[in-house]
Amino acid sequence: MRRSSRGVDASLASAVATVSPLLLRGCRVVILTGAGVSSGSGLPIYRDAADAIWETSLKTWGTRAAFLKDPAAWWQGYRDRGLERFHSASSNIGHDAIAELAARFPSSVAVVTQNVDGLHCGVPRDQLIEVHGSVARLKCVTEGCDNASTTTVSTMDDAAETRAADVGDHATELPMCQLCGGPLCPAFLLFDENYSSHDVFQWRKVLQWFQEAEAFIFVGTSFAVGATAEALQQAEARKLPCVSFNLVIPEAIRRKGRVSLLHILGPTSDTLPSFVAAMDEAKDLGEMGIMKRLRRSSHGDDAGPDDSGTDAAPLPT
């Protein structure tokens, strides 16, 4: 369904009117990003598409149990699925827009990303948590090893030694832990693990940021993981404003819920820079000017919800 540019402009104005007063007052605003923000960097999304990474691997390959069963075969599966492309991808203008917003509001903006690609590298480290880990680091899975619970190993570090292993007719490289001699796997969250399984996920700090939040901005997420569920629960309980930047309204949002989201629909590489530019203007306008601009952009726009880009979708419980 085609959306009018005037409707998208109105939805952006609504988002700016919602978020900018909070940022200007120094309130905590949490930006929670998913795979959609990295699609502009050539990386596939995880769900809800024909080429989604996890659609065929959710209950088979992407688990700690599968890794423990045969680490060498697991690593070969990592390479066969083309996941090494995550190591060489570059950030796009959507990432840059988020980094710019974080830099302008260092005491307010906190970024929690579900992505493991490291493409939010422009966000100051004290404002960023990679809640699902990173492909740039390795963790041990041997119980009792520090690298299995509190520390990780850089993929560029000499500590990440490898040994050759046979997988069928092929040889593959298996990274080994120097602390205990066990196999290492990527330091990202596997589907049968929880956020508290390793300190690398910083789950306690994520919960602290969520509890401090006065608003949430969701970017390119399918709302299908624990981090978004927790954020939405916080938003519903405290009636916090929420904005979602996405190509479409995710199925998880359409199915159930009670609290409304303000949707900005379109490629995040287009909508996020527009949002940040509008936030710049909001600084000059002040709160009263923002509200006047919002009323003016909405005046005479008789497009219905399907044309405006501002569809209200309920939050999942």
Word description of this protein:
With 317 residues, the chain is α/β, with parallel strands linked by helices. It contains nine helices and twelve strands. The strands form three sheets. A seven-stranded mixed sheet has the order 3-2-1-9-10-11-12, with helices on both faces. The chain has a three-stranded antiparallel sheet with strand order 5-4-8, with no helix packed on it.
- What is the CA-based Rg, rounded? 21 Å
Which structural category fits the helices and strands? Answer: alpha/beta
Distance between the termini: 28 Å
- Uncertain runs with pLDDT below 50, 5 residues or more? 1-7, 300-317
Q: Largest sheet, described in full?
A: 7 strands, mixed
Strand content: 15-25%
Overall pLDDT level = 81
Order of helices and strands: HEHHHEEEEEEEHEHEHEHHE
What is the strand arrangement across the widest sheet? 3-2-1-9-10-11-12
Helix percent band: 25-40%
- What count of helical segments does DSSP give? 9
Shape category: elongated
| Total strands | 12
Blueprint (SSEs and pairs):
Layout: H1 5-24, E1 29-33, H2 64-69, H3 71-80, H4 93-104, E2 109-113, E3 128-130, E4 133-140, E5 153-154, E6 161-167, E7 170-176, E8 184-188, H5 203-212, E9 215-219, H6 226-238, E10 242-246, H7 251-255, E11 260-265, H8 268-298, H9 305-308, E12 312-314
Parallel strand pairs: 1-2, 1-9, 2-3, 9-10, 10-11
Antiparallel strand pairs: 4-5, 4-8, 6-7, 11-12
